[in-house]
Fold:
Amino acid sequence: MTSDRPAVLTLEGLQGLIEALAAEGYRVLGPTRRDGAIVYDAIAGLDDLPAGWGDEQDGGRYRLVERGDAALFGYAVGPHSWKRELHPPHLTLFRTRREADGFSVEAAADEPEPTAFLGVRACELAAIAVQDRTFLEGPQADPHYARRRAGSFLVAVNCGEPAGTCFCVSMETGPRARGGYDLALTELLDAAGHRFLLEVGSERGRALAERLDARPAEAADLAASRAVSERAAGRMGRRMETGGIKALLQENQEHARWDQVAERCLSCANCTMVCPTCFCTTVEDTSDLSGETAARVRRWDSCFTLDFSYIHGGTVRGSTKARYRQWMTHKLASWYDQFGVSGCVGCGRCIAWCPVGIDITEEVAAIRGEKNPESAG
Amino acid sequence: MSAMAAGAAATDPMLPAVARVVGRRRETADVWTLEVAPPDGWAGFAPGQFNMLYLPGLGEVPISMSGDPAAPGPIRHTVRAVGAVSAALAALRPGAAVGLRGPYGSAWPVAEAAGADVVVMAGGLGLAPLRPALYRLRAERARYGRVALLYGTRSPADILFRRELERWRRQLDLEIEVTVDRAAGDWRGSVGVVTRLLPRIAFEPVSSVALVCGPEVMMRFAADALLDAGVPEPRIHLSMERNMRCAIGQCGHCQFGADFVCKDGPVMSYDRLRARLKIREL
Amino acid sequence: MTVETLERYILEHRFFEGLEPAFGSLIRGCARNVRFEAGQYLCREGEPADQLYLVRHGTVALEISAPGRGALTFQTVHEGEIVGVSWLVPPYRWTYDARAAELVRAIALDARCLRDKAERDHDLGYELMKRFVPVLVERLHATRLQLLDLYAPPA
Structure:
């Protein structure tokens, strides 16, 4: 392959892509089936991919199901997002050592391995772009994120099988990747065989693609790829009306719906953990018993915890109502003020992984005063 | 993307400089002013800004600078010993090491107030982040109209910077009114809430600038009293308090509506805050 | 002091700002000029509230005395403000001590005289109510804030 013209990879060609990435020095991560879910983990080849598995998702529900075909990327999204790699759940910032005249500070070693992400969905590309704004584009960049981001090679795989919880069409982030990737694949499973349309999105991507054993795409391949995306776009399990949503939420902070959702919300923080854009962290201090050395560790935090808004004297957001309102208003409204985009990419994880099935699209509809089509009555 | 990320990877804004405590002064029973030698690269601060002070194994807290931003020498931080970190900070002796990141946050609009009357309203420990503004107002006294400090605190024993306030009052540069919530018999000053001091001072409300810092409840009523007196909303500035961990808008803790108090604040004008201050648990 | 001067003092006092002169004459009939040296008491807790004071100069400390704690000042009253709202409502009894913290000049109004005139002339009564009720509301608000103990170190 010698140009940016789309190409077609066979299954062996895909294996070749994984091997080429590894040969380039990338740790290759991709979807694997573990503990009844599709999670991202190290992969060596096609055998590690969840062939034939799809997912069924709904409010508070996630199940793997056998598809009855050989699709390698036949699921929507699992509980993991690439946030785990770019913005690790747990990161030592620095260590201190006691000295005769006080203490010294030493930055923790942080040399992340270059990593290739295989199977990045369009919604996840959008989520990465959203987190870029948080961690790279403010007055002070986060060097840990910046290093991981610079060393990541993104292989998108266009979504062909949206879940019942998906609404990327509403959020205008998918289902087809529109940039932000190095390479993009569309899995094609039809009479013409099991193959992948390969599109190039960056210089790095082109350099790698040139080394692959691929044939130029024909009009039928391109049409098949477009058809996958169009079919996926038509099968969104959820929708969210986003017109005027910033004002809607910011001007309805005392809406009765917040009390109602608070009656169900367990403040468990699952939604924030699975959300691919939630970025909040706290910092913890540890020291050895003698006080000789200490460390500061950054870890994911959630606006659903009581401690999150603690100031001297007490917690600002003491009620579940206030915490849910903070999360959703931040995600769908304040985010525009802070970062110029929505904090929601429509991946639906918060809906599926909520133990009581709270549905962000339903909550928006309720505050709008609509009856959600998904919930009768 | 890669060029942007590579350029940004240079320094970690979460790494503190190790600075040296050079002095400590007791202000009240539980409030201390810690003097810290400026670390390498310290480029000064503006009135109203804060630093993050860190102690190994204990943690890091935001502490307002309370000294004169124009004065050479140590950086002054006034801290109330209420939590594990602040109590340990307050107990530091000269020679001790302390981690320091900063300065962070927005500043009081001191220069912008030139030509106007300035009303400074402080409640309790809220006087500390206002003192740098008072130093600047005094230093360039001729640039301002009338300048008044209205200060309310718990009891006469809780008055911060008392000698300095008495000296300033004698020098007649500022009109200074202090009131306490309760007092024993030997207190000769006012008793009552700080907003009651407002009718006692002469100022031109429409063109004046008000700087307010104290507990949120106090600031709400102070802002109402200033508005009632005729000060326009954009000319009333409050310093907000929220949980701050990173001070650079990346940890999410200090959000107040769409603002990160650490970088969009802490000093914000009342027109921006008014609607949000009326929402509980925001 | 002449009657005219007394009436002028009443009309010029911030508490009676904008009062119709006719009411000024009525009120003047109950008024006298008074002066307290520092440390003297304007009134004592438990005594009949038969006076109220328009403070013209100086500071008055309103105090409650508690065994072992001495006199606690809960509010100070300054020039342009008033001492005394207990005269307005039964049982017309002072519920605190009012002590001159420094030399205080004031207009004392005889409470019985004022109540009688207000009873006979409801327009005057309403005018007085409109001026005294805000004082009560403001003191209640101040009391709430003091009760919150806003500046106390967090528990």
